[in-house]
Amino acid sequence: MANTEKRGGFGGKVAAILAAAGSAIGLGNIWRFPYITSENGGGAFILIYLVCILFLGLPLLIAEFSVGHNTKKNPIDAFATIKKGWGWLGAMGLISVTLIMGYYFVISGWTLNYTIASAANSIGGDFGAFFTDFTTATWKPLIYTYLFIIANHAIITSGVQGGIEKASKIMMPVLFVILISLAVYSLWLPDGREALVNVFTPDFSKVTGKTFLDAMGQAFFTLSIGMGAMLIYGSYFKDGTKIAGTAISVVSLDTLVALMAAVIIFSAGVENESGMQLAFVAMPKVFSAMPFGNLWAALFFLLLGLAALSSTISMHEAVTSYFVEKRGMSRKHGARLVTLFALILATVASLSLGDWSEYTVAGMNFFALLDNFTAIVMLPLLGILTAVFVGWVWKKQDMKAELTAEGGVDKATYPAIRFLLRYVCPVLVSVVFVFGIASFIKSLNTPAEVETVEAETPEVTLHIMGGSEREDIDIENIERVKLTVVETNNN
Ligand code: PHE
After folding, report:
1. 16 Cα: distance to centroid of ligand 1 (angstroms)
2. For ligand 1, atom 10, which residue shows the shortest CA distance?
3. What is the pLDDT of residue 310?
4. d(CA 253, CA 25)
5. Quick one: which of 123, 177, 437, 455 has the most CB atoms within 10 Å?
6. Which H helix or E strand runs over 464?
7. Which of 172, 175, 221 to mutate to test ligand 1, by most ligand atoms within 8 A of the CB atom?
8. H/E/C letters for each residue in 118-164?
């Protein structure tokens, strides 16, 4: 039965920018960008990243908005409307974004626990132990993840304008205020400015092939490229919304937030921590030494949670739109189904860090598998295919008409965008993709899951987290471990 509900849409330009920026700005900016930067030579990485954002990310974002805006359809129908037989490209994006939801919701749930625990000052003195105990527990992380998923569900069922637009208009300004306050505060920290200069100073000796891989992957992830999320938002843009201008605003805001997050984290002097630990262990530790530090920590985790929520609603909406428009379900029903998928995947992902950590595929638990597979395989693949679709498959005149329509790319820049989409994106991303797959396969042969090594005297348990994402750790060949005692308990 066809669905008779009216198709939703954003009320205006500001809403379009805020919602799309909300999708872009997420854990990718605040949790992932700083640690990838510090692992890859600081300023040198940032330069490469900015090049990727400008020459690959921006044209692809414009392309994705255009496909949505042109067709005003869900991701599968949108591709199929422009070229018959291409609906599978939309489907691939929706499958990928569902898999991303699986682990993304888990981390989002953590932010909730950390916000509450920081505000209540109940994290205690051992931040590493708190993190490990919490994330490997059975129920606690699940409950927070479920709460987060329910909040997400409530926004989606309230509709495009009443839910997504309204939530974005509230969340995004709050997010910016918190971000600016934290940035100002962190620059006051002792050694803050010095630490900052150190991190932003390019260290080209750390640049390797992997740096380019990481930079591109990060650029795609942070701009939500290829997953149908930006496409569906593009389809909700009001007529007359400037596609190119919106894309430029989104890219600028997203980049600004990533850089400010790096400023906040590095000025706290924690650039040597990596991976998940950076946000969840190092930050509360740094804040704990400051007056009212727990409240600043709570603000930081609230920031992380808001950024995550504005991203997860775009993921959820992309998939929901498919069930509503293609399967004829009511919005409520469609959303319920997507929420159910999210609940199941997130439950397995969360448990895979603790109770179910012994179940691994090629040395990776389910959580790491979802993260690695989507980041290394799906993201670049979808980037290449979207570029090929818009650059080669979409009829030249139609594509030009959409891209240069009033408020679109201006006539002078159009050839450049077309050139980037036809040649630069597919070729460059393919190269990076092949290398990425190669190093992924290599990492499969060197399993590095969560390991617990028991030492005899004194009794110490060493947790090495990060799974096979940590290619720099070859657990089997670790011979010596340097232990630094941070805190002693003399009883
Ligand atoms: N861009 C989001 C972030 O940086 C993640 C995201 C990916 C959102 C795919 C939507 C779709 O965290």
Report:
1. 16
2. 224
3. 97
4. 8
5. 123
6. strand 461-464
7. 221
8. HHCCCCCCCHHHHHHHHHHCCHHHHHHHHHHHHHHHHHHHCCHHHHH
- Nearest to residue 49, comparing CAs of 355, 320, 262, 301? 262
CA 220 from centroid of its chain's CA atoms: 9
What integer pLDDT is reported at residue 489 of this predicted model?
41
- Is the distance from the beta carbon of residue 97 to the nearest atom of ligand 1 less than 6 Å? yes
Lowest mean pLDDT among 42-51, 242-251, 265-274, 386-395: 265-274
Q: How many residues does the chain have?
A: 491
Contacts of 258 (CB under 8 A, 6+ apart): 28, 29, 30, 33, 222
User: Ligand 1 centre from 330 Cα, in Å?
Assistant: 26
Of the listed ranges 237-246, 265-274, 356-365, the least confidently predicted one is 265-274
For the chain, how big is the Rg over CA atoms in Å?
Answer: 22
Three-state secondary structure call for residue 366: helix
Ligand 1 proximity of 257 Cβ (cutoff 6 Å): no
CB 147 within 8 A of CB 105: no
Query: Does residue 34 line the site of ligand 1, with CB under 6 A?
Result: no
Does 339 sit in the ligand 1 pocket, CB within 6 Å?
Answer: no
- pTM > 0.85: yes
Most confidently modeled range among 8-22, 181-195, 267-281, 450-464:
8-22
**Single-letter code of the amino acid located at 211:** T
Cα 27–33–36 angle (5° rounding)? 130
Return the best residue to mutate from 27, 311, 374 for the ligand 1 pocket (most ligand atoms within 8 A of CB). Answer: 311
The closest alpha carbon to 262, from 188, 184, 196, belongs to 196
* 216 close to 58: Cβ distance less than 8 angstroms: no
